[in-house]
Write a structure and sequence with these properties.
The protein is built from 9 helices and 2 strands, in the order H-E-E-H-H-H-H-H-H-H-H. The protein is an all-alpha fold. The protein has one domain: Arp2/3 complex 21 kDa subunit ARPC3 (Orthogonal Bundle), CATH 1.10.1760.20. The protein has a two-stranded antiparallel sheet.
């Protein structure tokens, strides 16, 4: 009885540490930035990497922790910014959209297994939903604050320039996450049934 309780407590502690480390990784990757209408950062890479490494549930919680830390005023967003105003601004929807990637990954890999094509497809669908949510958010906020703007214009600002880089980040994140899992067998066994 005590041993089972100790194992559960140890597992929760490991989960907490991994989620906190995941949020920190997203923050560090957000600071590596090229300023555009929507900043070009490595946030997406971090979210993909964590999703494959930790599973959809833990990665989604890491994203949520990251967003809450930034909303609380700690400068973890692109350009060392923070605050609820960033999240509620025109590009905030893309950050909220990161929350969709983990659950999509969990559902798809639970249904079809954790093979490379399945994982890639799950991450791609999650990215598409992130783009869709972020673009709808951008349209709403931008139109309310600055006047009407065409969907095509928003896509040309916020989505089209990022598609190829994001697909490259997706491929690199899958490769690195799989290598980390192979290199650290204890981590791999801890995460085996993550979702």
């Amino acid at each position: 009885m005590q041993t089972t309780y100790s194992r559960k407590q140890g597992s929760r502690t490991i989960d907490t540490v991994m989620i906190a480390a995941g949020a920190a990784l997203i923050a560090v990757c957000s600071w590596i930035s090229i300023p555009l209408t929507v900043p070009f950062t490595l946030q997406t890479f971090a979210v993909f990497f964590l999703t494959v490494l930790l599973g959809g549930k833990r990665s989604a919680v890491s994203v949520l922790v990251y967003l809450l830390i930034g909303a609380a005023g700690i400068p973890v967003f692109a350009g060392f910014t923070s605050g609820i105003g960033i999240l509620l601004g025109s590009t905030g929807g893309y950050m909220f959209g990161f929350l969709l990637i983990g659950p999509v990954y969990s559902i798809v890999t639970r249904l079809f297994g954790k093979k490379i094509p399945t994982e890639a497809a799950a991450l791609t669908v999650g990215l598409i939903l992130c783009y869709a949510f972020g673009t709808a958010w951008f349209l709403f906020v931008y139109t309310r604050n600055s006047g009407a703007v065409a969907v095509g214009t928003v896509l040309s600002w916020c989505v089209l320039p990022f598609i190829l880089p994001d697909l490259g980040k997706l491929a690199l994140s899958m490769l690195l996450a799989r290598r980390v899992r192979r290199a650290v067998p204890a981590l791999s066994s801890q995460l085996e049934n993550a979702d």
